[in-house]
Amino acid sequence: MQSTARLSYPTTSNAKILTVMPSSRLILPFTVAIFLVCILPSPAHALFGSKKKAAEKAGAILFRGKGCAHCHGVAGVGGKKAPALTNIRKNKVWTPAKMSDQILNGGHKMPPFSDSLTDQEVMQIIAYLRAKHKPVPPPAQTPEPAQ
Ligand code: HEC
């Protein structure tokens, strides 16, 4: 009888240990999983970031090529004909939607561009105007066709 009691005691405590053990054994896989979750979005972010950069660069080329710079100055620094657009990203009034409306439909003195720009091009110009560091367009290889 005594021996049975002795045997059953270690068995229950083993069972208790076993219920604890799997979770402590899971610590390593958990750490690895959390680590992976932390690093996995980085390539996705890099991809998204480079897509954004590509849009900003395309916008920089369009801004010059489509004649925006003619009124708004090179890189949108402003000129006699139109206001500066350099700080428009900080201007809460000029939401992307409002900018898109201004570009497509024009304003008081600004002509509409709905005929000469696609939706994607408008989006690229807005990405350029909203860029923290505006990319400098590469020098034009051939003279730009007149708009
Ligand atoms: C003929 C000159 C002219 C051209 C070309 C021009 N704009 Fe404008 N733009 C203006 C003027 C003037 C304003 C001020 C509001 C108005 O009169 O519509 C303005 C305003 C804006 C605004 C709103 C900012 C503000 O403070 O009013 C945005 C954004 C803008 N232009 C973007 C563009 C883009 C992008 C292009 C090229 C696709 C472009 N503009 C081409 C003259 C021009």
Task: Chart the SSEs and their pairings.
Layout: H1 2-25, H2 27-39, H3 41-65, H4 68-72, H5 96-105, H6 119-129
Overall description:
The model has no long low-confidence stretch (mean pLDDT 84). The protein is 60% helix and 0% strand. The chain has two domains: 2-39; 54-129, Cytochrome c-like domain (Cytochrome Bc1 Complex, Chain D, domain 2, Orthogonal Bundle). The protein has six helices and no strands. It is an all-alpha fold and 147 residues long. Residues 66-68, 70-72, 81-83, 85, 88, 94, 99, 102-103, 107-111, 113, 125 line the site of heme C (HEC). The site of heme C has 22 residues, from helix 4 and helix 5.
Short description:
13% of the residues are buried.
Shape label: elongated
CATH superfamily of the largest domain: Cytochrome c-like domain
Find the count of extended strands (DSSP E, 2+ residues).
Answer: 0
Q: Tally the helices: what do you get?
A: 6
List keywords for this structure.
147 residues, mainly alpha, Cytochrome Bc1 Complex, Chain D, domain 2, 6 helices, 60% helix, elongated, binds heme C
